[in-house]
Each structure stands twice: as structure tokens, then as C-alpha cells.
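Please check this:
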Amino acid sequence: MRQFQVTSGSQDKGVRLDRFLADRLPELSRSHLKRLIETGHLVAGGRTITDPSMRVKPGLCFTLNVPAAKPAKPEAQAIPLTIPYEDNDLLVIDKPAGLVVHPAPGNPDRTLVNALIDHCGESLSGIGGVARPGIVHRLDKDTSGLLIVAKNDLAHRSLANQLQSRRLKRIYLALVWGAPAPAAGRIEGNIGRNPKNRKKMAVLTHGGRPAATHYAVRSHFAAVASLVECRLETGRTHQIRVHLAHRGHPLLGDPVYGRKRPPAGLAPAVADAIGAFRRQALHAHVIEFEHPRDGRTLCFKSDLPKDFRDLVKILEKI
């Protein structure tokens, strides 16, 4: 639970209570504040205030208690899944682009979690949290490829530990603008929220969390684009997309960190194909880990999906 204290001044005399609080607490919406007041979460002068339309008097100290949000329990939904491997402890999922991993504002259902609950039943309940049962790591909505899901606490603890200790190996394939030089290397730079746009991540000179990405160019398409293999040393939000964009080689199709339009001079068919690719060109190609129960090494590979392969074929004609 969070607690806020706000004291009214002479300039606040006669202002509606919910408007006064909304001005002082911009992180909370006015509608949210109204509900909190009506449900008895505001105290002033030793008494509970439940009228959001009350007119404020100067010199009052208001204490607002904001209860922690309770995550909604996702429901089972029958969504087809591609499952390269499954046993009593875990699943390996080959996620298509467009599928959100877990429910969140804007995507309350039709997620991978909803599909997993339908596939596994109540066995996933509570593993790793109510809102993200079984999820060990995630992929962005429009990133395709492999991820692991734990089916019990033993598997979840082991896989999470492997992820943290960097023993869980992940290799991605990305199409980027330009030709990275050198052709292989390590990109290092702390990643955190972009101070100018909180919806984006950025490489920061101060703050953020340490992040490192190893890359190697697999193919060049003239000097226009390259197919790059990326190995994660850490796993920060949007890490590959942010690191490569920071180096001047954003991913093709990336709506957040990419270019708005193809460079001039491309053949119309090539420019049209690139423009029609409406997601970041990123695919989780390989995943390798130790089985949580017996320690054997498991390695899985996922072929590039059709939209990605088709774009590569177009680029090969440059």
C-alpha cells in the first residue's frame, strides 16, 4: 500500500476535493482518486472523507491510502500453441509474432498465459505469480520464437536461477539497417527508461541496469541491411533493439526504435516489402538450458517464420 499526504493552502480554498488531489498527485487519475475517496481511503482531521465533491478549506492535511493492485487471475482460453517440447516439468513454446506473453493493460486476455492455463489446467496456478503463471522469461509481442514455461515450482526456481546466472543461453536473429562494423563484437551499455519518453528504453550514461549483447553478422545485403545473430549476456527490456539502435543499426520494421521509412534509392519492390513488414525483425532462434530435474542439456532451434524468410529473400535481390 502506498500513502500520500497533501496539505491545502489558501489558493486551494473552494476547489473540489477530487480536483485538488488530482492537481497535487499527477500520478493518480482523477477518476481513480474519486473511487478511492468514495471507498473510504482518504482521512483528514481525524475523520474519513467520502465525498469527492467536498470543497477544500485551507490548512487541512489529507492522508490518502492507495491499496496495492490485486492482479486479476487470467482465464483459460483455447488458443493454438506450437510446442516443440513438453514434459511434466516444463514446456518449450515457439511463439508467433503478435501473441502477447501475459495479460497487461491494453491486452487483458488472448495471451500466451491464457493459452497455457487452457493447455495445462490448474497445475500452473501460482507458479511465478498469479498474473504470470509459469513464465520464466518473456518475448515482446511482435518478437517471434522460443521461450520456456515452468510447470511447477521446482522447474521455475531452477530456470529462473539459470537465467540469472547466465547459464540459460538465448540466440536471436535480427535484420538491421546498414552493416555493423566490426562484423562481430560486444555491445555494452546500461539500459533504463528514456528520460524524454518513459514508454521507451534507452542506453543511459547514468543509472539504468548493466546490459551486454554479443553480435555477429551472418549476411550482408549490399550496404542496406544485414542479418545479425545476437546472444544475450543479460536480459533487459528491449535489449537487442535498444543496443543495436544505439550503435546506429536499428531493426527493420521496429515501430519504436527503427527508421520511419526505407532509405532512398531502393528498388520499389524492395522498399515496399520493407515498408510492409510491420514488426521488429527479431526472432528467438535458439534456446539452451539444463533440465531442472535431471540436469541434462536441452537445446532447441526455431526456423525463421514465413514473413521473416520472405523479407530476407527480397533483401537478397539487392
User: Anything to note?
Assistant: The domain at 168-318 is CATH 3.30.2350.10 (Pseudouridine synthase). The chain is about 20% helix and 30% strand. The helical segments are 17-24, 30-38, 112-120, 153-164, 239-246, 268-276, 306-315.
